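From the shared-data thread, chain only:
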Amino acid sequence: MINALLGIKKQMTATYDARGRRVGATIIQIDPSYVTQVKTAGSKDGYEAVQIGMGTRKSVRKPQIGHVKKAGIDKQIRYFKEVKIKKLSGNLNLQTIAEPTLDNIQPGQEIKLDQVFSIGDAVKVSGKSRGRGFQGGVRRHGFHGGPKTHGQSDRHRAPGAIGSGTTPGRVYKGKRMAGHMGSSGASIKNLEVVGLDKIKNLLVVKGGIPGPVNGLVMITKLGKIRGYTPPPEEKAEEETESAESVEAKQESSDQVEESKTEEASKEGEANAS
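Structure, as tokens:
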């Protein structure tokens, strides 16, 4: 099974951890996805990957319609993303590593939220950061600007010098200056899944994620958070099940003893007669 799905960033909310501390969380809408294409190393593609599609729209270009129909999907898919099948490297904060495979994956297959993610998973969320337009050095790079005294009049937010004189006689590449800010790729790793709603197709992760509201994000499962313990409700259910199993075993042993006693009494009566 693959280890990543597409989602739409919704609003932020708050939740409480095991210690009762209030922490921020983000709600992600993950509608059912479909496998639109499977690439293998032996084909012309030369590598293993799975292309997934999510969402629908009213008007789609003809090449996309034909591509989706080839997979046996009778829907106009809006978003497409490719998930490469490769072994993920280990991480100190994780217990196990989720390795995606091509086992039991066919074009046209529907993939639901609970088939990939569960509470306690560590995920990576990738998206496009919110665009800030053209910004100066103070906001874009955190420059402090010039002093407000000592004869300064218009240098409060100025970047200062950008290079030397004749040597080198130019501005070095990569010099931090004013320019376009945001609207670029961003990823956050090791976010914990703290909530999952299979009916409404909602995934809740701890902390913030890149992108604006209703922005497209990619959620990749990395493994399990180290030291994760199930909530008290799950523990109580497990304890109840274990107690019921113990009672059932005790009842079965009592029934066996009663049957042995009855057989022994019958044998004694037969011998006496």
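DSSP finds three helices and 13 strands in the chain.
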